[in-house]
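For reference, the entry.
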Amino acid sequence: MADQDDGPTTEQASRHPAVRHIPVRYGRMRNVGEFACPGKVKLACGATLVIATDRGIEVGQYADVTCHEAASSQKMRAYAANSGGEAYRLNDGRVLRLATDTDLIELRHIEEGTREKIDVCSRFARELGLDMRIVDCEHLFGGERIVFYFLAAERVDFRELVRRLASEYQTRIEMRQIGARDEARLLADYETCGRECCCRSLLKTLKPVSMQMAKQQKATLDPSKVSGRCGRLKCCLRYEHETYESLAKRLPRLGSWIATRELVGRVTERQVLTQLVKVADESGRVTVVPVEAIVERNVTPGARPPGRQAGASGPEPVVARRQRPDTSGNVRGNSRTPKTAADETSAETSAQNRQGPAAPLESSAGSDPTDGAAPPDQTGGTPSHKGRRRGRPNRRKRRGRPSGGS
């Protein structure tokens, strides 16, 4: 006799818990909610599930983080806390089973009849004279109800339309009026950025977006560039709105006077992301200043910078005058520029040229008579003092000669 099965072991129970909570995306609006899933259901990447919600039996998709790591309940609850309660619905329902091939065939058959249901509802609305446009239709997998989404400029009395549709399909009919942004969520595919529309893929709470957000982010105000598929301002303008607000609070106001350690001026322009401001002083000179360099705000125009107060600055720099070497090679006077080695060499050379060649050194007894002698001149001899003296009177004579003498 076979042993009686006492149930799963401790190891199996820890590996497959009785109930776990998983994220599931479902419905035409692609809502994401937390569903209780039995431990025996083996989940795969993007698995199709049959779920039970407050609307009835539906088909959803396992919304895992990646194909290798499932999203834990703690991660999804943290996501809900950061994104808002409507982004992730807690305790939204339960998972019944994995969708079988029969379920997928039935689901495909229901979706193929969506276009026909939209045409029938539009025909009934025209016959009743209702000013409305049917956008989409959602037939639940269990057949509990059919939801029609429509656009209208004003409130519409669709009670007679609901009675006709209920008589046609023998099920519960729900009419839901939506806006232009919800229409984009239902029908749009890709945006100008090249990605799938945020309202269709990840954005569940459609909060209002104002033109002030576009102005604060220095975005272009061209309607064709800041508008999405719905014709309204793009939802992505709201993503970094709080960050821009916090960064803008750090910058001084336009037109206010600020002081750094070097200057005092008026703020003419602000850069929120780079945290830079353009400052114009009293002379009109414009300087770009980081916000960290501002030491005082709302100062009085014409005040002195804190770094240039009396006694706060260091000693004045000494400005030297240009150096001039004398005939002996010594430097006299101050110089405006520092003297270099090349200047010293040039000064020594000029002094030697004025004085003439150096006199020959007297050789000691027994030494080589050529040691210390000056180089021979063009005639092969050594220049003498007499030759040097003979040249000087001639120069004096030329300087003293009258201009009209012969």
Q: What stands out?
A: The CA atoms of residues 265 and 282 lie 7 Å apart.
